[in-house]
Amino acid sequence: MTDSNPAKGAEELPEEPPRRLTALDSYQGRYLILATLLILALLAIAWFGHNYVSKVTGAQVARLEKRTNLQQQLRQGMRELQNIEEWLHRQLIEPGLRQKTSLEEQIQRLRTKLTDLQRQLPEGEQKALLETVLQTRLNRFATDAEGFLRISHDNRLRFPSTEIMQTRMRDKAATFTEIITDALDELRDQHDGSTELLLDGYRLHDTWQKILSEFRLLVANRFGVFADDPLAGMQARAGNIEIYMAHLQQELKRLEKMPAPEGTLYLEPET
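User: That's the sequence. What structure does it adopt?
Assistant: Structure tokens below.
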């Protein structure tokens, strides 16, 4: 007959042993240690990687900021140089023009910009080149610009040939023209039939007028008038003058050998 007392059946069940923590010398303990060490290693790698990336990124950002600053200063220096070029261009177009800033102030601004740029450059070829520009080329540029300014304010320096044309060439040209005109007038008044001599006088007068015309064109070309290329125009005019001068000398030598009619003005070749 089966015992129906439940309490008695419960007492007969075996008791479960209490659970213990994983021992370090067991497989589970070893796996736990390895996993912990791996996690710590990953954390250390992540921390060092984060610091390295932050350091490199900061250095890159600093270099970019410095490069941007240098580029801005370089652009400012180029702008100052452009302002100087425009200043000189306005002075060339209108000599003696009073401008808002002087040439010395413009050059000093450029020098200041380049000096600031040179201080921030790292040691190397670019810094040495900029130092050479500051010490040599900029000083030479300032000297040349001041010399240009002095020339632009003095017409005798801007056009040195003007004084020669006014004091020497004009009087001699007028004298030569007067002599030829007087000689032709006297030849026309003669009635001895000296037609050949009169024609020679006209040829001489015509050649001389061509020389004067070419010289006037040469002066006009010097100021950029009647020529797209002033230098080429001046060279062409000078070549024509040499040709006409050779013809003029030939005419004078031929007239020198011809006997002058009695009572006429004789033209000396030296004149």
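The chain has a mean pLDDT of 77.
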